[in-house]
Amino acid sequence: MQAPFIHSLHRLLDPQKGRFMTGLSRLAGIMAVLFLPSCALLAQAGDPFPAIPPTVLPVADQEIRTSDDPMATRLFRTTSVRTQIQLSGFWDFLPDPRGQGEADRYFDRFPKPETRMWVPGTWNTYARYWHYEGPAWFRRTFPTPAEGRLRLRFAAVFYRAKVWLDGKFLGSHEGGYTPFSFVEANLGKGEHELVVLADNTLDDESIPKSGVDWFPYGGIYRPVYAELVPDVFIEDFHVMASVASGTNANLRVRAFLRNFSATDREEQVTFEVNGRLLFSEKLKLSGRDPEVSFSVPLADARFWSPGSPFLYTARLHLPQAGDDQYTRFGVRSFALDGPRIRLNGEPFKVEGANRHDDHPDWGPALPPHMIRQDIEILKRMGANAVRSHYPTDEMFMDYCDENGLVFLAEVPAWQNLPEQLAKEVVQDKIKAQFREMVYRDMNHPSVMAWSLGNEWPEFEKSHNVIKSLIEYARSVDNSHFITFVTGGARTGPISALLDLICTNWAQYLWYDPFTSLDLQEAEKAISKLNRIHDSFPDKAVLITELGAAESQAGWHNWGNVKWSEEYQARNVSDSARYSLDRDWIAGGLVWQFSDTRSSPSRFLAGRLRGWNAKGVVDGYRSPKMAFYKLQELFHDFQASEARPRKATEDTGDRTGRLASER
Hints:
By secondary structure, the chain is an alpha/beta fold. The chain has ten helices and 33 strands.
């Protein structure tokens, strides 16, 4: 039922195939196509809910279910023993455009606030602060139920943050998309004051830099909470699963601990998977920040894939200290086989979208039900992958794991010029944000690749710098593919050092002097893309942004001119079809999922109402024509791949080169 439905809707939406229909008859036809299949399905199945899209997400495929996270940060509870304190809610808020707050000691004597603001949230969705870039202060009080050591955990603050507790400076953090924490010892029971200075000012040395093509929303826009921890506690731990043989896997566990006791000590460390004890030993902990590592086998493992996203639950426990942490992981293997990507030994073609954490009402602070809705829409479209220019919300990553969406993670080093990349301070910030991204997202089976940045102009001039960044990335993690993204189907000698060649490409260029589709220019764009394969025939080539074209939602034009939904739909569909039809292309991701707000500096510089309108759905997630075009292409491709292969086709067990076997 679904294929004829999409085909009929496609004919009605396509101005060429539906050229004889009037506006009213087309509307009537669309209503019939949308309504009648639903009636047929209802009559057929006797189910009050139609079996056609929209769909709802299934419950996570896992053997055991953990409790929900009371801190509303993850899709599972991260601890069973720590006392946690939710710090979401209304905070006092005061902008500081003159930057005088530190000198005037706002952290000691907080002035009268200008308003109260909901956290997690951003000031740039409030009318008064719509375009405000600069420092601003947040303050709230909270009670602790007992005396002890307090850990404050911020999921993200954009872009710079400084934190004070009861007037005492705890520390600072730079980078707007990764978590950070502070620990305060001997905190008394009762009421305490927390003050945060956030600053969303960007410059030539920040990552991202100023003028970036998405909005620099300021504030404490992701969850924040406090928890009481013992003298020795778990800061984080990684579970790195690799396939040993057949269905047997090996788990390499790396735990990052904090030791605030006076001396080195021995501590019992236990490790469970799905409630079964796999490891228990006494280990010596040395120094303030000890690390412990061990490996355990996992027999008869169930593999994670987009079609079967099975998840394991792991618990690391320090019974003597009285601390534990939970995480989830999956067993899967990404490998390279010439120009092809293989997942668990099978060919894998990327079909996806680029997504920003953005919404007209909430900015980047999407509530959980909106994050879930985005996943539903992506699945409805037929996507199996997502990319973001920065580490996205942790709950979104959990949903990717649960629903089989492969993820391409990236440092927000966007269009940095050679003179910027040459600065040691910029290189250090790229490395720091790369390390924080990897450490946060290592356990997600959905993550396929780490990208160091996007569309660096004249990247050839930065060969040695990029080479050193690639080497650093592999020193942090060699179990995932390492890449960076070029613009306009460009490569160079540095491309040979990458696991994946990632480039942004569209069959019909948006930034050219033509106002409508130009077939001669399209041929040039195709020829340029093909030269990548000619130069690197054994490299996987992934189109990380395809078909980028803006459209004003609801505006149609018979001539397929730019800004019309017709132009966008044609550019997106032709570009996506080309990526799906070529065996040497590993797939593609449309730019972009939804319309998003752009930088204030771009409000009058080629951005419709100050928004990047290249989404296949608009800001409020209503579909454009391009959405249905992609839906049809993705579903048709998946149906063709599911058919039995020809006898002449190679179906042997070719696992290729693992990401860790370069």
